[in-house]
Amino acid sequence: MRTVRVLGVDPGLTRCGVGIVDGAPGRPCSLVDVAVITSDPGQDITDRLLNLERELTVLIDKHRPESVAVERVFSQHNVGSVIGTAQASAVAILAAARFGLPLYTYTPSEVKAAVTGSGQADKKQMTTMVTRLLRLDTPPRPADAADALALAICHVWRGGTKQKLENALRKAISNDR
Amino acid sequence: MRTVRVLGVDPGLTRCGVGIVDGAPGRPCSLVDVAVITSDPGQDITDRLLNLERELTVLIDKHRPESVAVERVFSQHNVGSVIGTAQASAVAILAAARFGLPLYTYTPSEVKAAVTGSGQADKKQMTTMVTRLLRLDTPPRPADAADALALAICHVWRGGTKQKLENALRKAISNDR
């Protein structure tokens, strides 16, 4: 099985987690890099979005992943942060598009299920599993970093199967109209 | 008083209103262009965001506004559409930044108050006033188009005063830390 490099993004405007792993479906993954891109809520929104775009671009350019996995934003998210989360996800999606990288989105439960076996796992359990799966000496901190790594691991293991199904379904629906 | 050209954006992923007007504070504005950029909710999110970015870029490039006014997204917005609205606003903010244009945000009540005198005005009243203020023969349709024009008019008349105050305040606060 060929090894792939995936960049995972846990979107956020104040703290955006980015995790890059190498791996193949059903085999252990290895950590390439992990970062949290931060911005100050008191800063101008333009500067915050530009900063996030710039930092994400640097990481993509440095590590050249084959695909990007971004957490899917839901309105059930914390209402106070959903706007920043949605804006950050748009920046991540456009950054991936500029490098011509395929983009995949996963819900938090899908990521939890892939990494811990349960869609209801809590943050502590997620961090424990990410630390174990990547054979790290210490847990990645803060939680945004662990979540971004979990997204990347989730995508490596699911190997894009889900997105292929979704694309086929979308095509079938639009042909049907 | 010098005439300025402002591009207003009523952000949305399915329908994004864009209105461009010329005017000066306290004087009538005139319509330059108005458009609604649409995308299909069944389409891939990357394609939707890229399409919006491309269309906005074409309009900015064609009309060369001096500034861009975007509606500020609130979590009180319709929860079903707040994510698309937030993502579209991020695309608009980055598009303005790429042209080096100053960006201003206004709440819906600020726009309503500027255009109708009341922060509680309804859609019908807004459309009526935008039609009157721009001396149009027929009301701009759909509502997203009227809202985008109202944003642009709001910014022309407020002449960036509000943002200057906010910037000064932000500076004062950050110096104080």
TrEMBL record, chains A, B:
Molecular function GO labels: crossover junction DNA endonuclease activity; DNA binding; magnesium ion binding
One family name in Pfam for this protein: RuvC
Cofactors, names only: Mg(2+)
EC number: 3.1.21.10
Binding site for Mg(2+) 1: 10, 144
Catalytic reaction equation(s): Endonucleolytic cleavage at a junction such as a reciprocal single-stranded crossover between two homologous DNA duplexes (Holliday junction)
CDD domains in the cross-refs: RuvC
Residues annotated to bind Mg(2+) 2: 71
Enzyme class: hydrolase
Gene3D superfamilies given in the database record: Ribonuclease H-like superfamily/Ribonuclease H (3.30.420.10)
GO biological process: DNA recombination; DNA repair
InterPro entries, alphabetized: RNaseH-like_sf, RNaseH_sf, X-over_junc_endoDNase_Mg_BS, X-over_junc_endoDNase_RuvC
Entry keyword Nucleotide-binding: no
Source organism superkingdom: Bacteria
Localization per record: Cytoplasm
Keyword DNA repair: yes
Cellular compartments per GO CC: cytoplasm; Holliday junction resolvase complex
Keywords: Cytoplasm, DNA damage, DNA recombination, DNA repair, DNA-binding, Endonuclease, Hydrolase, Magnesium, Metal-binding, Nuclease
Catalytic residues (UniProt): 10, 71, 144
Cofactor: how and how many bound: Binds 2 Mg(2+) ion per subunit.
Subunit note: Homodimer which binds Holliday junction (HJ) DNA. The HJ becomes 2-fold symmetrical on binding to RuvC with unstacked arms; it has a different conformation from HJ DNA in complex with RuvA. In the full resolvosome a probable DNA-RuvA(4)-RuvB(12)-RuvC(2) complex forms which resolves the HJ.
Role: The RuvA-RuvB-RuvC complex processes Holliday junction (HJ) DNA during genetic recombination and DNA repair. Endonuclease that resolves HJ intermediates. Cleaves cruciform DNA by making single-stranded nicks across the HJ at symmetrical positions within the homologous arms, yielding a 5'-phosphate and a 3'-hydroxyl group; requires a central core of homology in the junction. The consensus cleavage sequence is 5'-(A/T)TT(C/G)-3'. Cleavage occurs on the 3'-side of the TT dinucleotide at the point of strand exchange.
HAMAP family: RuvC (MF_00034)
Family indicated by similarity: Belongs to the RuvC family.
Protein name: Crossover junction endodeoxyribonuclease RuvC
Species in which this protein is naturally found: Rhizocola hellebori
